[in-house]
Amino acid sequence: MAVIPVITIDGPSAVGKGTAARLVAAELGFHLLDSGALYRLLALKTLRLGMPQVAANAAQIASLAEQLDIAFEADDGNTRVLLDGEDVSAEIRTEAVGARASEVAALADVRAALLDLQRGFRRAPGLVADGRDMGTVVFPDAQVKLFIDASAAVRARRRHKELSDKGKNVNIASLLREINERDDRDRNRKVAPLRPAADALLINTDELGIHQVKSQIIDHIRQCLPDQPLPGSTDC
Ligand code: CDP
Question: Is 39 near ligand 1, meaning CB less than 6 Å away?
Fold first, then answer.
């Protein structure tokens, strides 16, 4: 049976990997896995259940992860995200949910509980998966792996612009603090810490716009998979 190609795009918070992944998936006609959305959905669920903190409730959160009722629906170029049948696309993007997501994501049982769900997104003709551990843990056999990075200051400015465009007025210094806290937790956790896979191409995006990032990724994919959409060399 033909191998279904997977492109992994990992990187830290607010680096633009979600947008890059969406553009690349659209160009290739591939499916998309926004793995961060799964952690955010689980985080929202724990907040709605009124759990004051995660560490003391790890087993319960892992079993919630196994039973998550979620759906991703295409909506005019965007994706609508549903939790228990309700559209929570905007709510899962708040900083409060992001901070809780990074806490639940540090729990080993939670990560294990979400593995099969994530691997289930690998469907023909191919998948673009973005997150923290796509190339290292979830799809170690991916045909093409990328790790995109940028300094914390640049990422805080990007997140600030994203929020301002949505009419939200957030202090850039507090965004920078949150990004640094989240980076610290994501990079230093014991399970699946944020780090590039040994075979990932690193792209620093400090000086690159999103369309340049997308072009570099597409160029790399074309080199690794010359016969795209058919699987090609696995040298990448
Ligand atoms: O949008 P942003 O990059 O800030 O966050 P996200 O990609 O939506 O992920 C939210 C949180 O989920 C991150 O801070 C990570 O702690 C966690 N996460 C993870 O641990 N592993 C993944 N594959 C994806 C996200």
Answer: yes
Q: What is the mean pLDDT of residues 124-144?
A: 96
Task: Judge contact between 31 and 128, C-beta under 8 A.
Answer: yes
Query: Quick check: helix, strand or coil at residue 194?
Result: coil
Q: Do residues 34 and 110 make contact, with C-beta atoms less than 8 angstroms apart?
A: no
Q: What is the pLDDT of residue 65?
A: 96
Q: How far is the CA of 227 from the centre of ligand 1 (A)?
A: 32
For the Cβ of 182 lying below 6 angstroms from any atom of ligand 1, the answer is yes
Q: What's the pTM?
A: 0.92
Other CB atoms closer than 10 Å to residue 226's CB: what's the count? 10
**Does the beta carbon of 31 lie inside 6 Å of ligand 1?**
no
Side chain identity at residue 91, one-letter code: E
Domains present along the chain, CATH in parentheses: 6-223 (3.40.50.300)
